[in-house]
Every structure is written in structure tokens, then in C-alpha cells.
Amino acid sequence: MLADCFEMTSQTIYKWRQRDSVEDRSHAPHRLQTTLTPAKEVAAVALRKTLLVSLDGLLAMVQEFLNPNVSRPGLDRRLHRHGVGTLRDGQAKNWRRRCIAMSGSTINRSCRQPSAASRPCRR
Question: Which residues contact 19 (CB under 8 A, 6 or more apart)?
């Protein structure tokens, strides 16, 4: 038997005979199980962008109004997927947008980038 020659189970031989190529396939799931629908995911991302709330604050809002079964890591993955995983990124983009919107050649005080001393310390 072929399985005995290669020291494999007959089920493995059967599985490989059904394939079109000999390359290994991905072990990642083809369809991710999510508790948020795409529409609710867009709503959560919009809340994050407009309110600039922390992950825990957003989690409380999403669990209260959209889906009580959503988990903190799952919500964090979705926010990172949409590019709003950290508040610093969103605040930096808002700062740049505000500075670009200002017209004229004089630089306004509010257009300066915040210094490292004025930013909260992360521990």
C-alpha cells in the first residue's frame, strides 16, 4: 500500500490524490467567523473616526448598541483592518488635514505639530 511506503495514513494519501498540485495549502480559515456584519463594522469604524474614543470606550458602545457578543480583540482587528487601530494615527491625520486646509503663507500657531512633551506618556 502507498501509505505504508511513505509512512502516512491512508486518509492523507486520499486527500493528496484529490488535489491538483503538490504544494501545501494555507491552514488559515477560508471564511472568518465574525460577530459584526459589514454594516455594523462600518458603523464602528465611523464611530472611532468621528468620536476618537479609546478601544474600551468604543467596545462599550458597540456592545451596548450594535452587538453584545463582540470581543475586544475582534474589534481591535477590525479597526486595524480599516486603518484606525490607534488613536495617534487618527489624530495625526486630523492635524495634517487642519494644517493643509489653512490658507495663506503665514504659519499659524495651531498648525504646529504637538511636541513630545505635550503628548501623554504611554506606559
Answer: 25
C-alpha cell at 1: 500500500
Give the cell for residue 96.
Answer: 495634517
Contact 45, 90 (CB under 8 A): no
Residues of the chain by 3-state class (helix, strand, coil), percent to 5:
55, 0, 45
**Grid cell in block for residue 32:** 472568518
Phi, psi (5° rounding) for residue 27? -95, -5
- Residue with grid cell 476618537, as numbered in its chain: 52
Q: Return the SS3 of 1.
A: coil
What is the percent of the chain with per-residue pLDDT over 90, rounded to a whole number? 34
For residue range 13-52, list pLDDT tens digits in order. Answer: 888 888 888 888 888 877 767 788 999 999 999 999 999 8
Statement: the pTM of the whole predicted model exceeds 0.85: no
